[in-house]
Amino acid sequence: MRAGARRRTAALCAGAVLAVGALTGCGGDDGGDGGGGDGTSASTEVLGVVTIAEDGVQEVTIRTQDDYVFTPDTFTVAPGKVRLTVVNAADEMTHNLKFDEGEGPEPIGAGIDFLAPGQELTIDFEVAVPGDHPFTCTFHTQLGQVGTMTVSQGG
User: Fold this and answer.
1) What is the mean pLDDT of residues 86-112?
2) Phi, psi dihedral angles at 96 (to 5 degrees)
3) Which residue from 55, 74, 112, 141 has the fewest beta carbons nearer than 10 Å?
């Protein structure tokens, strides 16, 4: 009976080790690779750096994924037109981006209602009043998925 109990314990331990290894392997491959069709375009972007497009619009890209954060969670633009791209590099989570109504120095009506895993969307809007404009993923506000766009004093 002791030999049978040992074999069962050994079999259970081996099964547990295999299950953990399989789950870790899946998680590591999906999370660390980022080389999928939509992920490759995001990897070539410099996140949070504001550039000026040929049409004179300020462009900035931020990313979100399965960890409930925006990367970066802060960026600064000058007063004027802004083109914000949000890349969802998540494997499973859907996200959105809304500027917090009544929280910034001016209303920003633009936002992203739904961003599926692997999707990226771009919104255009204009800002004129310097200060901090908070934004959030309303699906995950309680988990701390928030950020701030700062509009600088000068253009």
Assistant:
1) 95
2) -150, 180
3) 55
Neighbours of 1 (CB within 10 A): 5
Count of CB atoms within 10 A of residue 143's CB? 11
On the question of pLDDT at 147 being above 90, the answer is: yes
Tell me: cis bond preceding 107? Omega within 30 of 0 counts.
Answer: no
For β-strands 80-88 and 58-64, DSSP reports them as parallel
State how far the Cα of 64 lies from the Cα of 61, in Å rounded to an integer. Answer: 10
Half-sphere exposure of 3 (CA within 13 A, CB side): 0
Contact predicate 117/94, CB 8 Å: yes
d(CA 119, CA 39): 9
Q: Calculate the average pLDDT of the chain.
A: 79
* C-alpha to C-alpha distance for 127 and 104, rounded to whole angstroms: 11
What letter represents residue 71's amino acid?
A: T
- Whether the per-residue pLDDT at 152 is higher than 90: the answer is yes
The b-or-e profile of 96-106 (16+ CB within 10 A means b, else e) is bbbbbeeebee
- pLDDT for 13-22, tens place per residue? 444 333 333 3
pLDDT of 44 reads 53
